[in-house]
Amino acid sequence: MSSNQSVKVLVTRDIPQIGVDLLRKEGYDVTVMGYDKPLTADELLQAAKKADALLCLGSNKIDEVFLHECKHLQVISQFAVGYDNINVPVATKLGIPVGNTPEVLSDATADIAFGLMIAVSRKFFYLHNTISKGEWGFFQPKKNLGIELKNKTLGVFGLGRIGTEMARRCKGAYHMTVIYHSRNRNVQAEKELNAKWVSFDELLQQSDVLSVHSVLSEETKGIFNKAAFGKMKPSAIFINTSRGGVHNEADLIDALTTKTIWGAGLDVTNPEPMQKDNPLLFMENAAVLPHIGSGTVEARNAMSQLAAENIIAFYKTGTMKNCLNPEVLLRK
């Protein structure tokens, strides 16, 4: 591998300084693309052609075309836990290890899911807007009623790190029963939270709150569609803080409009960014945030540090703290 002084690291956005400082402290030649908006595909490609290592964001499309044009890249480290923007199989074929930043944003994202659940259950966003429109009138005993969460059933789709943190919050605060559906059993959560694995249909049918924490893949893309919403309780709340592509937005709007389900809280939309006239923004039982799951000082600093540490570890030891295709490292 090259000496530190000759390693050129491209950082595709202005990330928290801690990661950039770590890279420069190691002697790497770091270029930070400090634009206010994501690089275009061509801007990213041209800049990456001059780099040895890439520290990218989820908004960067690291697809097959890009990877073949930049097969000289020695390592890619993503400033995110999700990686659906990266064609990892192609990177693997080309021998490029790909890292990400799990764990460090689990609490921040679980807080958003938990907050959205409460906001939807009591119509926070909608009722706040009535005040700004001058519609706060007199007390009406049967109007603006929410639903309580205590002793309800939380269903988690994808009980990984973030899903487990959401379950811990719901169990601790509201004594909720936890059920889940994942590709793999989470034995630790089953012991700690008495979580029960159920089929996807059972998850839909039994959940009072259904919180999505899965990756976006061919298997999960659009899985929450009209058929899925139709199997949920009319009193159910749907929460998605994973990826917008996991739900079909037109079907979700229809499910809320027809009262097929009670409410929805989203930190991710399909597409992103959401248009300002999207019906979800004006619905009584909906709450939408602009994809801020990791948006705390602590989480973003930790993401920056871990993304940098992935690159540093690769050049120092030939390993990475978090690698999505570790088989590549064995070839190095």
Mean pLDDT: 96
Structural class: alpha/beta
Say what the CATH topology of the largest domain is: Rossmann fold
| CATH architecture grouping of the largest domain | 3-Layer(aba) Sandwich
CATH superfamily of the largest domain: NAD(P)-binding Rossmann-like Domain
Query: Residue ranges: pLDDT <50 for 5 or more in a row?
Result: none
Question: What is the CATH class name of the largest domain?
Answer: Alpha Beta
From N to C, what is the helix and strand string?
EHEHEHEHEHHEHEHEHEHEHEEHH
Percent in helix = 25-40%
Q: Please, how many helices?
A: 13
Report on this structure.
This protein folds into 2 domains: 137 residues, NAD(P)-binding Rossmann-like Domain (Rossmann fold), CATH 3.40.50.720; 183 residues, NAD(P)-binding Rossmann-like Domain (Rossmann fold). The protein has 13 helices and 12 strands. It has a 7-stranded parallel β-sheet, sandwiched between helices. Strand 4, helix 4 and strand 5 form a beta-alpha-beta unit.
Give the SSE layout.
Blueprint: E1 8-11, H1 17-25, E2 29-32, H2 41-48, E3 53-56, H3 64-69, E4 75-78, H4 88-93, E5 98-99, H5 106-121, H6 124-132, E6 153-157, H7 161-174, E7 177-181, H8 187-193, E8 196-197, H9 200-206, E9 209-212, H10 226-230, E10 237-240, H11 249-257, E11 263-266, E12 286-288, H12 297-317, H13 326-331
How is this structure best summarized?
This protein is of the alpha/beta class.
Sum up the structure in keywords:
single chain, 332 residues, alpha/beta, Rossmann fold, 2 domains, 7-stranded parallel beta sheet, 5-stranded parallel beta sheet, 13 helices, 37% helix
